[in-house]
């Protein structure tokens, strides 16, 4: 059971690192949170393009993980 918890936190850390090191500054303020359904992306960006880029960035960082995009576009 401890190994599963470590794996889950590793997924969240890898996703958050991918966002925080993005060359797109708006993506650096987004959050990735783990839950039972997958990884939830939260925060705000100014375009649907940035919303999609954030989602694909996280998908590449943590493959085989369900990414749920709750990012809001202002």
Could you explain the architecture of this structure?
- The chain is of the alpha/beta class and 74 residues long.
- The chain has a single domain (2-73), classed as Histidine-containing Protein, Chain: A.
- It has 2 helices and 5 strands; from the N terminus they run αβββαββ.
- Strands 1-2-4 form a 3-stranded mixed β-sheet, with helices on one face. A two-stranded parallel sheet has the order 3-5.
- A hairpin with a 2-residue loop joins strand 1 and strand 2 (38-42).
- Helix 1 crosses helix 2 (48-61).
- It starts with a helix and ends with a strand.
Brief synopsis:
By secondary structure, the protein is α/β, with parallel strands linked by helices.
What is the terminal-to-terminal distance? 40 Å
How helix-rich are the residues, as a percent range? 40-55%
CATH topology type: Histidine-containing Protein, Chain: A
CATH architecture level-2 label:
2-Layer Sandwich
Which strand order do you get reading across the main beta sheet?
A: 1-2-4
The coarse overall form would be globular
Into how many domains do the coordinates divide?
Answer: 1
Radius of gyration based on Cα positions: 12 Å
Q: Beta-strand level of the residues, as a percent range?
A: 15-25%
* SS content category: alpha/beta
Main pleated sheet: 3 strands, mixed
């Amino acid at each position: 059971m401890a190994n599963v918890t470590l794996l889950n936190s590793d997924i969240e850390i890898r996703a958050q690192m991918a966002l925080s090191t993005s060359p797109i500054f708006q993506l650096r303020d987004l959050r990735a949170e783990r839950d039972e359904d997958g990884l939830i992306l939260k925060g705000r960006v100014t375009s649907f393009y940035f919303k999609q880029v954030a989602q694909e960035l996280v998908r590449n960082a943590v493959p085989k993980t369900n990414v749920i995009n709750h990012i809001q576009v202002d």
